Amino acid sequence: MPSPRRTFAIISHPDAGKTTLTEKLLYVGGAIHLAGEVKARGANRRARSDWMKIEQQRGISVTSSVMTFEKDGVFFNLLDTPGHEDFSEDTYRTLTAVDSAVMVIDAARGIEAQTRKLFEVCRLRNVPIITFVNKVDREGRPVFELLDEIADVLALDVCPMSWPVGMGGTFEGILDLATNRISRPDGDSRTFQGRTEDAPQLPADVAEEIELAQAGYASFDAEAYRAGDLTPVYFGSALKDFGPAELIAALAEFAPPPRPQPAEPAPVQPDEKDVTGFVFKVQANMDPQHRDRIAFMRLCSGTFKRGMKLTPTGHGKPIAVHSPILFFAQDREIADEAFPGDIIGIPNHGTLRVGDTLSEKPGVRITGLPNFAPEILRRVALKDPTKTKQLRKALDDLSEEGVIQVFYPEIGSNWIIGVVGQLQLDVLLSRLEAEYKVGANLEASPFDTARWISASDPAALKEFMDLNRSALAKDRDGNPVFLAKSAWEVGYIADRYSKVTFAATRER
Which end of the chain has fewer CB atoms surrounding its CB within 10 Å, N or C? Predict the structure, then answer.
């Protein structure tokens, strides 16, 4: 019998309406009881999933949140990923923990650069995608143009599952193509207080569009969707409540239950008896009063029971998980048991790190969770030199979370911070100040990029390291890293030392 678990992420370009859609899905799923949080003033305007201070100040999501809810016997684990272009690494790790994704596209802007980047990550892991074209109650691009762009840019078959009757000023509702029922706006124009009814005679131009679409685009095929070859497309407006209910129904009916996970020595199947899971995220200080550290673990197989002992790949000593947590954004409750597909939080004090596999069975390691070479390097300068110890603790915590990477140069005492995107530097300074009471500035680094180095011939590696000590550092695991002044220098040095491998990613 298929599992009633659906673990999915929402991905989009910034401002496409992802956080609003997240909130409406939670409302439709019965997880929150106030539909107007995105319209409310002041503190209520923050979506429930955006809890970090910098998120509230800027109105963007910069960290992945997990929300669990149940509707009609199906349990949904929703992972709200950062949409900001600077958070590709955290977003990538989140996408390793899901079985499907909802891609949100703005009807006026179509597919944007970040959408394409996130889609490529999904494609790497064959994550099936449902597309939601948002904001059709505003002026947007022609429907055929949007559908053709999705098909061309993403190289996917598209299957429209609903159709907007008009757009912007002429918007009259959304037609469900499977049931031939239409959801119409009614009452207060700022929200959907409408009605769903059997579609009457449609305007001739709309009827013709739908006929052309059904003849010209692929019909829905559940296997093609689950294989990542076809995307069903829904139209709607998250703000006006057109579409969230249909999305939840589609996820329940079509989205895959927990899938096998790539692992060594063999893939982990969800129906295996032994409990296995992996940590895809670590978050410190979700509750600033208690300085907590939570490891987010995706359960891959077995039935997890509270108090059971699991062995992490990191250090090989079994740990007892006494207080596992189920999440609803910042709200949490103790989980007595969990099943494949579920995300549980494990409180710990630095024992667990991103990429760790926890299992009842020794020797299992989930693969496909790499570190990425940072694209920006900076030195950290303390405003108060007496706070060196606090800074070291903060940088250790934040590097365990994956917010930053820390490199310790072989020569010199200035630690170097590496990030994938510029916004992570703002997050670093904000969190140092807010959570650790450490004031710091960032200074230019003499280096521009970093590469992990290795060689099958130890003598070749030693020769390279002896001759290039001034450009060498170690990461927090003690792995040797070459710090280069430019991408050109990386290529030049790699040509000179052909026996040494310069890697832009490192498997955790």
Answer: N
